[in-house]
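for the recovery benchmark. tokens below, seq after
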């Protein structure tokens, strides 16, 4: 059982770092999409959800008598900063940014599905409930992106 628990805690730390990465990416994107107000509003909404998810994950980790990983959090933020800066140098940043966001959301979805299975295995019903809520938010963001990729792409092409 302790191996299950250690993996579970480690994966929760990974999820916390992933949300730190998401926050940095969303922060980098929100001001650069001002010409796309629906996208900007959705990014701002998801940024708030992301910040709340960090708080929730940290509480779950603490409840398991563990702490977040500063090294993982820093590495994730650094990676996100690089991703955000790389978009500045391409003309079609908006289209590539939306595609990248969609892909990132699916990585998060897969991560939370893994964590949910692990929470069930270790019998942590409190964390299971938190993870289920976060998963719904990530799925909603992915669905929104998928639904809006065509209109964002068309809006971009109209400006060219």
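predicted aa per position
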């Amino acid at each position: 059982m302790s191996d299950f628990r250690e993996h579970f805690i480690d994966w929760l730390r990974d999820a916390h770092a992933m949300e730190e990465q998401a926050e940095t990416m969303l922060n980098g994107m929100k001001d650069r999409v001002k010409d796309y107000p629906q996208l900007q509003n959705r990014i701002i909404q998801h940024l708030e959800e992301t910040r709340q998810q960090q708080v929730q994950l940290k509480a779950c980790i603490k409840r398991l008598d563990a702490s977040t990983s500063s090294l993982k959090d820093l590495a994730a933020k650094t990676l996100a900063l690089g991703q955000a800066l790389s978009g500045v140098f391409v003309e079609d940043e908006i289209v590539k940014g939306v595609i990248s966001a969609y892909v990132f959301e699916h990585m998060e979805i897969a991560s939370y599905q893994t964590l949910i299975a692990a929470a069930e295995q270790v019998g942590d019903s409190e964390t299971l409930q938190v993870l289920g809520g976060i998963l719904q938010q990530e799925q909603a963001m992915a669905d929104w992106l998928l639904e809006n990729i065509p209109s964002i792409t068309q809006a971009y092409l109209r400006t060219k």
